[in-house]
Amino acid sequence: MPNGTVRCETQDGIATITLDRPESLNSMTNELMADITSAVAEAEKAARVLVLTGAGRGFCSGADLSSVGPGDDSDGADGDGSGDEVAQGMDDFFHPALMALKNASIPTIARVNGVAAGGGLGLSLCCDISIASRSAFFVATFGPRLGIVPDLGTTWSLPQRIGRARALGVTMLGERFSADEAAEWGLIWKAVDDADLDAEVATAASVLARSSSEAMTRIRSAIETAGERSFEAQLDVERDHQKVLIPMNMAEGAAAFLEKREPTFD
Q: Which residues constitute the domain of residue 167?
């Protein structure tokens, strides 16, 4: 990637994007976020599924607070810059990376291999499926430690996944919680033993890689926006997706079922 803060490797239709600042637990800078945006674009061209993870002991520790300045702090601290300069940095670097992940044209997996703190928590929640090692933990450092509002989509993702009461407790008290707790609450898909993390992620990635990317991203869209509609309106949404997907995929899916093989989708 242009700034050398992210690695992207593709094998067997699976792109792995690795945040590569292990000396700071993969803390976020403008350069890192710009590299994520570039890496997602490359993954969409070359792969059928994207895995996001961190190098070393951490997934992502949030903003790089050692270099807080205009636009450098995803968590919104002003440092020596004005609020407008901070907001500009978020708009120019952080938000494009988050939207690239959130709206990726292929399904996404967060491989949470260590701490996901502050903005790192928000980053992990931009992926469709999150799988964490049991040694990993999560913490929303924004409010009690930095005196700011959770950002990077955290105020949207948390209540969507774990409800209002837990979202407020997590963000206002700033207590760290384990991968097992995250799985129990529904924040992530699964917590697994550290030794099993790679195998679990590989299994999930292989399922998604042989699935229809069009179907997977439409499932994402239908589920994430369901709360905005009535049951009757959601039936219409499902029908409109099926109008596209059944002619595209159903014949191959049915044939594979009858022939007792895995389907092959475009």
A: 6-209
Q: How many CB atoms lie within 10 A of CB 195?
A: 9
Query: Consecutive 10-residue runs of the chain (266 residues): their mean pLDDT?
Result: 94 97 96 98 97 98 75 41 86 97 98 97 97 98 93 95 97 97 98 98 97 96 95 97 97 96 92
Strand partners, 11: 14
CA–CA–CA angle 136, 8, 24 (5° rounding): 45
Summarize the chain as % helix, strand, coil (round to 5): 50, 15, 30
Q: Is residue 163 part of a domain?
A: yes
Task: Report yes or no on 121 lying in a domain.
Answer: yes
Whether 117 and 164 share a structural domain:
yes
Are 136 and 105 in contact, with CB atoms under 8 Å apart? Answer: no
Sign of CA pseudo-dihedral 250, 254, 255, 260: positive
170 neighbors 140 (Cβ within 8 angstroms): yes
In a domain? residue 1:
no
103: helix, strand or coil: coil
pTM of the full structure:
0.92
DSSP 115-149: EEETHHHHHHTTSSEEEEETT-EEE--IIIIISS-
